[in-house]
Specification:
483 residues; alpha/beta; Udp-n-acetylmuramoylalanyl-d-glutamate--2,6- Diaminopimelate Ligase, Chain: A, domain 1; UDP-N-acetylmuramoyl-L-alanine:D-glutamate ligase; Protein-Tyrosine Phosphatase, Chain A; 3 domains; nine-stranded mixed β-sheet; six-stranded mixed β-sheet; disordered C terminus; UDP-N-acetylmuramoyl-tripeptide--D-alanyl-D-alanine ligase
């Protein structure tokens, strides 16, 4: 029989709180929309006060609720764990879960690629032991302790994603997770509104090494201009440094990267061992981070050959480069276009990677109204870039991959500067808001096209992705309606 994740006594001991009843929980939840029977509901205060949803959580079968007081409408003898501060209580649960486990812990940060690399590591490590990893992008002040609090005691490997928006956020989260290995995917122009320079971002990313366990390893991108900042901080914390990337200075290096339509083939060296692996997605960034994953596996003393083979089992999640075929006609099966959904985040570095993927994509000619398939980009604003944000948007027009594109449509006030800088042959539509572009999607795409949608989450270009998907749903609805 599987042991419970938390008991009333264990959770009370971890938090110093008071349990009003005896209970056992098999999971931890902060959202009544996704809560499962047997979960411990954590009543965090965010946009809404979680205490307002405790009664609903208990009605849905929650084992208990972590609260700072008995909520209105909840009986005093309901199964509760009462603590002075709910967020601190969650941190205490995370700290206790980390302490009771013998898991090898990996902490990941970086301006680009944290979540996709975390999922790649989850896939690879799952082939070599019981692996626990953060859901979605749970990488902030509540996401990290929640991930730890959910970790079963018998976990072999835990992959903890750690993010930041402002200085001083990463080190405390790393110190909570106490990783044996840390990885920094890259340092790029993101969240520059909160930092004075790229070097400032690098210093914050480098602080992930502050939580390393004694004898820990820092797996760092050796190609970037700020790599020395990362390496110096890691060594100051007593870490062994392992570099990954494309250049000859790296311990784990991708020496040849071949981008195919939907696959990337990587040849290189993992220390002294030649390595060849395939990524089930096109993208140089996926290839480089895949080499970083192998470096992490090597740092853990695991089987790098098995890891290289298992990378092919990973595919990018929705919003981060996932690809899908959308049918435009219910009868003619070849009337499709390909959608690249990269609508979760954007900065100049990730835009370069996305354009390279789009430029390598294979279109289908002679399928639609247009004589040949096109490579189309629909781009939303890149946010939090600081005082140079206008130039950063306009400069995208000069990227070499633009030569392989056919049309660029822009959404948002910042992307207007790219729109103005584009040559006539590329300049598509500009709309101030994503909702306005949604109304135009049927006129922007055709069978045979490959369509990239990318922007910061706040640009809401995910609405455009949804609208493009619905073109396929409309085709299916038409098929059902015939007869």
């Amino acid at each position: 029989m599987t042991a419970p994740l938390w008991t009333a006594a264990g959770a009370a001991g971890a938090t110093g709180g008071t349990a009003t009843a005896d209970w056992q929980a098999n999971g931890v939840s902060i959202d009544t929309r996704t809560i499962r029977p047997g979960d411990l509901f954590v009543a965090l205060k965010a946009a809404r006060d979680g205490h307002d949803f405790v009664a609903q959580a208990l009605d849905k079968g929650a084992a208990a609720a972590l609260v700072s007081h008995v909520p209105e409408g909840v009986a005093p003898d309901a199964p509760l764990l009462i603590v002075p501060d709910v967020l601190k209580g969650l941190e205490d649960l995370g700290r206790a879960a980390r302490a009771r486990s013998d898991a090898r812990v990996i902490g990941i940060t970086g301006s680009v690629g944290k979540t996709s690399t975390k999922e790649m590591l989850r896939t690879v490590l799952s082939g070599q032991g019981r692996t626990h990893a953060a859901e979605a992008s749970y990488n902030n002040h509540w996401g990290v302790p929640l991930t730890l609090a959910r970790m079963p005691a018998d976990t072999d490997f835990a992959v903890i994603e750690i993010g930041m928006n402002h200085p001083g956020e990463i080190a405390p989260l790393s110190q909570l997770a106490r990783p044996h290995v840390v990885m920094v995917t890259t340092v790029a122009a993101a969240h520059l509104e909160a930092f004075d320079s790229l070097e400032g971002i690098a210093r914050e990313k480098a602080s992930i090494a502050d939580g390393l366990e004694p004898g820990g390893v820092a797996v760092l991108n050796g190609d970037i201009s700020t790599s020395a900042i990362l390496q110096d901080r890691a060594r100051a914390n007593g870490a062994r440094v392992s570099l990954f990337g494309e250049g000859p200075q790296n311990d784990h290096r991708a020496e040849k990267i071949t981008l195919l339509d939907t696959t990337t083939v990587v040849q290189g060296q993992a220390g002294d061992m030649p390595v060849l692996f395939k990524v089930r997605a096109a993208g140089r960034h996926f290839a480089v981070n895949g080499m970083g994953v192998i470096a992490v596996v090597d740092a853990l003393g695991l089987d790098c050959g098995l890891a290289a083979a298992d990378i092919a089992r990973w595919a990018p999640p929705a919003g981060r480069g996932a690809r899908e075929r959308i049918a435009l006609d219910a009868v003619e099966e070849d009337q499709t276009f390909e959608l690249i959904d990269d609508a979760f985040n954007a900065n100049p570095t990730s835009m370069v990677a996305a354009f390279e993927v789009l430029a390598a994509a294979r279109t289908d000619d002679g399928k639609g109204r247009v004589s040949r398939g096109r490579r189309i980009a629909i781009l939303g604003d890149m946010l939090e870039l600081g005082p140079d944000e206008i130039a950063m948007h306009a400069d995208l027009a000069g990227l070499p991959w633009m030569a392989q594109l056919d049309r660029v449509h822009c959404v948002g006030p910042l992307m207007r500067h790219l729109h103005n800088a584009l040559p006539d042959r590329l300049r598509g539509e500009w709309q101030e808001q994503a909702e306005q572009m949604v109304a135009r999607v049927r006129h922007l795409v055709d069978a045979g096209d490959v369509v990239l949608v990318k922007g910061s989450k706040g640009s809401r270009v995910s609405l455009v992705v949804d609208a493009l998907r619905k073109l396929g749903q409309s085709a299916r609805s038409s098929e059902k309606g015939t007869g």
